[in-house]
Sequence to fold (136 residues):
Amino acid sequence: MESICSICGKIIPEHRQRRRAKSCSDKCGALLQKRKYHQLNPYSVFTQNVSGAIAEYRTIIDLLSHGFEVFHSVNPGSPCDLAILKNNKLFRVEVKSLRYSASGVPYKPTKPIRADILASVMPDKIIYSPPLFNYG
Ligand SMILES: [Zn+2]
Fold:
């Protein structure tokens, strides 16, 4: 069965089909990887500052919907981005905007975390470590 390159519509050569390639050439392969990356990371079209702000506000909405009181830092150099209050206890939250690789694997934060809770904000979900139910 002939397979069609999803980038240019040409027939994928047999030696590439044997490797289960979805593109006709390395050039189309690179474009396909780029397309997958942008589909997995819709916020990647924004600057790092803007995608960081989007991640912070998404986390604020998520924490509010989990019943926390949320406080937002006014200084970008603060040791945490947010603070949450629940049952008279205050916890520091650091927000990290994370992207997926073209193969769908999330990148891990590289810098050490200075807060109590890390909010890893991916395009489709937010993962808290340690998990939020520890603070309920
Ligand atoms: Zn092609």
